[in-house]
């Protein structure tokens, strides 16, 4: 049985998640479902599938001065999720900045909304930040999550319903 904390996490996607996703042609929930579906289709471990599903939960929380990835990671940690979920969530914007820094072609593949937000998110990384990201224990998961994030903006893409992932979210939270 799904407990109240997990229900609260998913409730954010069921309600506020129906809002448009920051200039993209999908809702926040469609974006989340597409990212999680892609991770699951690649056979990724359950915590990364859950991170893909919940990576933008910070947008659904009360706005504040802290970036959405930090708000989301903190919220998920308070809900009992471990670092295999919270760290890729916290690092997914840093992963975008990293990829833009090391791969000049990567930026051209971003959506126009994602290119616009890059500057507000800090732009390219300096050498120290680039090395720090590259050596972080969850950098490879964050890079995978970033790729799912980038691709999860297709209007009408078929995905399972949110309930498909509810048990997985519950299992990962309990791990």
Explain what you see.
The chain has one domain: Hypothetical protein af1432 (Orthogonal Bundle), CATH 1.10.3210.10. The protein has 175 residues and is an all-alpha fold. The model has no long low-confidence stretch (mean pLDDT 91). It is globular. It has 10 helices and no strands. The longest helix has 20 residues. Helix 2 crosses helix 9, helix 3 packs across helix 10 and helix 5 runs antiparallel to helix 6.
Name given to the CATH homologous superfamily: Hypothetical protein af1432
Give the averaged pLDDT, no decimals: 91
Indicate how many domains the architecture comprises.
Answer: 1
Low-confidence runs (pLDDT<50, min 5 residues)? Answer: none
What sequence of helices (H) and strands (E) makes up the elements?
HHHHHHHHHH
Percentage of residues assigned to helices: 55-70%
Going by CATH, the architecture would be Orthogonal Bundle
Give the radius of gyration.
15 Å
**How many strands appear in the DSSP assignment?**
0
In percent terms, what proportion of residues is strand? under 5%
**What characterizes the major β-sheet?**
none
CATH class: Mainly Alpha
Determine the structural class based on helices, strands and strand pairing: mainly alpha
First-to-last CA distance: 15 Å
Shape annotation: globular
| CATH fold descriptor | Hypothetical protein af1432
Number of distinct helices: 10
Task: Quickly list its features.
0% strand; 64% helix; 175 residues; mainly alpha; globular; Hypothetical protein af1432
């Amino acid at each position: 049985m799904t407990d109240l904390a997990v229900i609260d996490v998913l409730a954010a996607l069921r309600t506020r998640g129906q809002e448009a996703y920051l200039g993209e042609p999908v809702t926040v929930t469609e974006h989340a479902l597409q990212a999680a579906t892609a991770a699951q289709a690649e056979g990724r471990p359950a915590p990364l599938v859950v991170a893909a599903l919940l990576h933008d939960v910070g947008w659904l929380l009360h706005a504040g001065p802290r970036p959405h990835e930090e708000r989301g990671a903190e919220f998920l940690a308070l809900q009992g999720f471990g670092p295999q979920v919270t760290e890729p969530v916290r690092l997914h914007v840093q992963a975008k900045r990293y990829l833009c820094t090391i791969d000049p072609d990567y930026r051209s593949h971003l959506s126009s909304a994602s290119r616009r937000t890059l500057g507000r998110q800090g732009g390219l990384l300096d050498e120290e930040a680039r090395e720090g990201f590259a050596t972080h224990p969850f950098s490879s998961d964050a890079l995978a999550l970033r790729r799912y994030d980038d691709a999860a903006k297709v209007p009408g893409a078929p995905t399972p319903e949110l309930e498909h992932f509810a048990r997985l979210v519950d299992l990962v939270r309990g791990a």
